[in-house]
Design goal:
elongated, 30% helix, four-stranded antiparallel beta sheet, 2 domains, 253 residues, alpha+beta, 5 helices, 13 strands, four-stranded mixed beta sheet
């Protein structure tokens, strides 16, 4: 479902004239200006604020060179996942320590103290990692004793990318640019979100529309991740599966 199709459906519900195009006369059409702004806002709200959608998760790694402690964040970076950690390839049991306070980060650097697994923070669109990660070491078979090649230490983490719009001409972006662009998630949720928000902005009753949007959003959110597995006879909800469908043994006293 394209942006134009979504906007037409929204217009039919809220009672405004159906457009032939969203963009063809957007500069002189106040209604389409509002529809476009609302579509972008609602698409971004669903993509970034609702949950860590699997469709928008990405990973990145940074190889060390023994010197660098600052690395540019990916061009499509939106935010860290809610449960994300930054790991070093040399420490797979414990992640690096996150230092959220910039003053504390600067103080620790001036004192040259750091956690045994390393530390990280984000400053000026860069991820800062300390201490510097060791670079690759080339093999030296002529040495006594001979040495083997050692790969560079890398840091890696998962993040939420910002490209929630699929371009009609190919590729992705974070806002609608053409009538044929489409939302990367379920367009019905985008439509329902636009309907209730439009009504709210115009002072019309919107409680029922907000409820329909919330139900649809929770439905696709529930399908976005596997159901948790519990041990026991009865699951706590219909989406939970039982790993052990019998009563648990009770130790004798």
């Amino acid at each position: 479902m394209t942006l134009l199709t979504v906007v037409k459906d929204v217009c039919a519900v809220v009672g405004v004239q159906l457009p032939q195009s969203v963009f063809s006369a957007v500069n002189s059409n106040r209604t389409m200006q509002e529809m476009l702004a609302l579509a972008n806002e609602m698409a971004q709200r669903i993509a970034y604020d609702s949950r860590d959608w699997t469709a928008f998760r990405a990973t990145v790694s940074y190889p060390g060179d023994g010197v660098a402690t600052s690395f540019n964040l990916p061009a499509d970076y939106k935010r860290m996942l809610l449960t994300a950690n930054v790991w070093r390839s040399t420490s797979v049991l414990a992640p690096m320590r996150f230092v959220p306070d910039t003053d504390e980060w600067l103080n620790r650097r001036s004192r040259n103290i750091y956690d045994a697994w390393g530390e990280w923070t984000i400053l000026a669109n860069q991820i800062r990692i300390f201490p510097a990660m060791m670079g690759a070491i080339a093999a030296n078979p002529g040495a006594t004793p001979p040495t083997l090649a050692v790969p560079a230490v890398t840091a890696y983490f998962a993040y939420l990318h910002k490209n929630c719009i699929q371009r009609a001409g190919g590729g992705f972006g974070d806002s609608f640019q053409q009538d044929g662009d489409s939302f990367a998630l379920d367009e019905r949720v985008l439509k329902l979100g636009m309907i209730w928000q439009w009504k709210a902005q115009k002072g019309s009753p919107y409680a029922e529309d907000l409820g329909s949007y919330g139900d649809a959003l929770m439905s696709i959110a529930g399908r976005d991740s596997p159901a948790p597995i519990l041990i026991g006879r009865r699951p706590i909800s219909q989406t939970v599966k039982s790993a052990y469908p019998f009563m648990l043994p009770v130790p004798s006293s």
